Amino acid sequence: MSLSMYQASIPTFVRMLGNLSAILDKGLADAEARKIDPAVFLAGRLAPDMHPLPRQVQIACDMAKGGAARLAGVLLHNMPDTETTFEELKARIAKTVDYVKGFKADQIDGSEEREVILKFPGGEMKLTGQQYLLGFVLPNLYFHATATYAILRHNGVAVGKMDFIGQG
Amino acid sequence: MSLSMYQASIPTFVRMLGNLSAILDKGLADAEARKIDPAVFLAGRLAPDMHPLPRQVQIACDMAKGGAARLAGVLLHNMPDTETTFEELKARIAKTVDYVKGFKADQIDGSEEREVILKFPGGEMKLTGQQYLLGFVLPNLYFHATATYAILRHNGVAVGKMDFIGQG
User: Fold this and answer.
1) Interface test mutation site (partner A, options B2, B3, B138, B146, max chain A beta carbons within 10 A)
2) I need a surface site. Which of A2, A37, A56, B10 has the fewest CB within 10 A?
3) Does the model's pTM come out above 0.80?
4) What is the CA radius of gyration of chain B?
């Protein structure tokens, strides 16, 4: 079967978000085992001007959610960024996975040339669907998933590369 | 134009490696500006049992190099991991970019179902070309590029997300 926009997006998002949720499980279990307040891990940052763990998870989720919606050409679905615990972050991931799983292949396939406009405080960026998926959504999704993983690992949580890669 | 295995691999590798090289430029310039021995940044790790910066760059390069070769079904091209300076790491990236640019679309396209066997100390993993690209090469490439970025940013280098994402 030929590679399709659907294959390169939805199953990829679902796999990475599933791995991210399992990484959070390991983080929470480690905090409990070492009697560390989970809030300590949640406040972790890789640099003073980088986001703490919850924001990393929220952005990873938003990349998948926004990616699915924009490629399908449907209205963006807002999810407020209110999570402050591991449990709430896992629920956010689960809700995002459910949302993206709701997209059918025929909504996403053929979106290679669909115009995607990203609005930023400083202006906007016009991309094709293919540029958006390969050059924006996937790098950002992996960036924020890696940051989440690295914050936990920096704090001594025994996660390994296979937790990140998961099911190939 | 339909999404193809070539489009999802070679231009994606070239863009990310180019951004990584520019991130290293900023790291070296910052070390010089702040009169910090660049070896300090190169020794940086996100956790005691994670790789230091040079190994992160080498693995990112190897993901692109191995990805291109395995999808095209050609022999793996070995590059020894000898780099110890920013300049040498940039040369490794440039050599890798040249190598992957040497692949033509018709060598990579149609590799969705090509069998890819990854050998590890503990055994082997059999994947289709599509699983290998989407579930192994890209996540690993972005993981190690993010780790490189985060090591520099953790050390106070003023890199930002646009340096990572670069040209969409």
Assistant:
1) B3
2) A37
3) yes
4) 16
